[in-house]
UniProtKB/TrEMBL annotation:
Belongs to the kynureninase family. Pyridoxal 5'-phosphate binds at residues 99-100, 127-130, 174, 203, 206, 228, 258, 284. Gene3D superfamilies: Aspartate Aminotransferase, domain 1, Type I PLP-dependent aspartate aminotransferase-like (Major domain). Pfam families: KYNU_C. Homodimer. This is Kynureninase. Its cofactor is pyridoxal 5'-phosphate. GO terms for molecular function: kynureninase activity; pyridoxal phosphate binding. It comes from the Bacteria. Catalyzes the cleavage of L-kynurenine (L-Kyn) and L-3-hydroxykynurenine (L-3OHKyn) into anthranilic acid (AA) and 3-hydroxyanthranilic acid (3-OHAA), respectively. The keyword Hydrolase applies.
Length: 418
């Protein structure tokens, strides 16, 4: 048995320097949303902006809007808004396509820069699309030009020289593991890769907006990330890609589309890439979706990402502490690192009944998610998750576990998206 001290949690919310940011978001009624690591919530400003783009810009100004509302520069404007969140100086980030497509562009370009080296090293448990993109490129170019080696996360940390060495062309690392929430020490791994002449591509899907990221200071070569998780850009929102300034003049990305041309409206039959980050564009940007990202990013105005990180750690530690006070806690094996500095902004628990428990939580308006084979994930978004939220979530979880309501047949039925 346990009882949660909600007065103490309310005090922590009162003292929270980020508390006011919660008002910028549409929080579904009576809902504790712990899935911002998959799809962030919508801001009020986003809804207003999408209305504006659709009802006024497109409806009234039609094609004139490319100039009148600067639609044509939206990818780089949004890129420059994302840049400070990931520690990049202006001119190195652009918003476009998906992580998958952007990975294909930077992987191909990086391999080409390496002139002779062919090995791409990544982690076995990386998000599958990252590995698929290397496999696809390998099929296209042939194993002799691009070959994937996957390595266990522990092994890469314990013996970096064994896996990242003079044979390695590119190291592809996701900072935070989507399944376990484990955070890799990127700065250290980038330094090691550079010492042996390898280039590094970083996937920031679970980092951007959740913690400080210092791409320029770490000297990352390339990075990709999505805007639909902690940046709250909306379902399928366009992703971003970072190319370090030092590579911009000598890059050759293969999805050479007209928006990446030096002069798209010259309609030149011969491709001539822009010499700026715009060369990473391919086709026409999705303006409505990108406008949603643009508006959502305003929630980061004045935000200190160190404070975001501190609150993320405090929320996750609170979750663990409250959970531990219940008898049923022993059945939840936390597979995320015990040291909060080695985690992203989520906790993952292995439990034999994780799927049914997750469904029961969702029915109780605690939105968590499930990842195969038996992991329950809870994500913390410091801009809108409160300390009281954590108390309510654990209290509702306790009711589900104590009453064993998750055993009901309706919670066993699997959905297509989990
Ligand atoms: C680490 C990581 N990379 C890539 C993706 C997917 O990228 P996209 O669907 O934008 O191609 C995800 C989640 O969807 C992810 O967690
Ligand atoms: N991108 C997603 C989607 O289009 C549908 C459902 C979930 C997602 C996700 O973001 C999955 C996510 N990358 C994960 O960490 O599991």
């Amino acid at each position: 048995m346990s009882s949660i001290d909600f007065a103490a949690l309310a005090e922590r919310d009162h003292a929270d320097p980020l508390a006011a940011k919660r008002n910028l978001f549409r929080i579904p009624t009576d809902t504790i949303y712990l899935d911002g690591n998959s799809l962030g919530l919508m801001t009020h400003a986003t809804a207003t902006r999408v209305q504006e783009v659709v009802q006024r810009q497109w409806a009234n100004d039609g094609i004139k809007s490319w100039n009148q509302h600067d639609w044509v520069n939206l990818p780089s404007l949004v890129g420059d808004k994302i840049a400070p969140i990931i520690g990049a100086a202006p001119g190195q980030v652009i918003c476009c396509d998906s992580i998958s497509v952007n990975l294909f562009k930077v992987l191909s370009a990086a391999i080409k820069l390496q002139d002779g080296r062919t090995q791409v090293v990544s982690t076995q448990d990386n998000f599958p699309t990252d590995l698929y993109m290397v496999q696809g490129l390998s099929q296209l170019l042939g194993e002799k030009h691009c070959a994937l080696t996957t390595v266990d996360e522990n092994a890469i940390l314990e013996q970096p020289s064994q896996f990242i060495n003079e044979h390695t062309a590119v190291v592809l690392l996701t900072e935070v593991n989507f399944r376990t929430g484990r955070r890799l020490p990127l700065q250290q791994l980038i330094a090691h890769a550079h010492a042996v002449g390898a280039l590094v591509i970083v996937d920031l899907a679970h980092s951007a907006g959740a913690m400080p990221v210092e791409l320029d200071a770490w000297q990352a070569d390339f990075a990709v990330g999505c805007t639909y998780k902690y940046l709250n850009g909306g379902p399928g929102a366009p992703a971003f890609v970072y190319v370090a300034k030092r590579h911009l003049q000598r890059l050759n990305q293969p999805l050479a589309g007209w928006f990446g041309h030096a002069q798209p409206f010259a309609f030149d039959p011969v491709y001539q890439p822009a010499d700026t980050i715009k060369q990473m564009l391919s086709g026409t940007p999705s303006i409505i979706a990108m406008s949603a990202v643009d508006a959502a990013l305003d929630a980061f105005t004045g935000v200190d990402l160190q404070q975001v990180r501190e609150k993320s750690i405090a929320l996750s530690e609170l979750f663990l502490e409250l959970l531990a006070s219940y008898d049923f806690a022993h059945a939840f094996e936390c597979i995320s690192p015990a040291d909060p500095r080695a985690r992203g902004s989520q906790l993952s628990f292995a439990h034999d009944d994780a799927y049914a428990i997750c469904q029961a939580l969702i029915e109780a308006n605690v939105i968590a998610d499930f990842r195969a084979p038996n992991y329950l994930r809870v994500g913390f978004t410091p801009l809108y998750t409160s300390y009281t939220d954590i108390g309510v979530a654990v209290e509702r979880l306790a009711a589900i576990m104590q009453e064993e309501s998750y055993r009901a047949p309706r919670f066993q039925q699997r959905h297509a998206v989990t």
